[in-house]
Give the backbone structure.
Amino acid sequence: MVEATSTFIRSVNDPRNRLTRVLEHLNIAVKKPGRMALAIGSTETSDIDGISAAGHTAEARRLTPALDAEALVLGLPLTHSSIPLSPEGIVSPVVASRAMVNLLDCKIEVFDCGTFVTP
């Protein structure tokens, strides 16, 4: 069994200390600032309805890479008033990514590999 603690994760049942050693290594790694590279891009293929869940309309899907990058780096998008939603109304995975970036204290580098809207 493993539980979350202030040291990230702690083993509570590890008779041979194998998991504990791995978790100690992870705890050390988590305390070091990380780096993350985010490559963003767009294609006209995303304009086709039903082919992508990265926005509820073709216009919204063209904004998604910029909005995701802004939300990941800044905590909220600047290009538009909200982060992207899927056609079903599901929020962008950038929310979970932002939580990970905050937890690991990552420095983020964004690479625009061809977008319709530059973040």
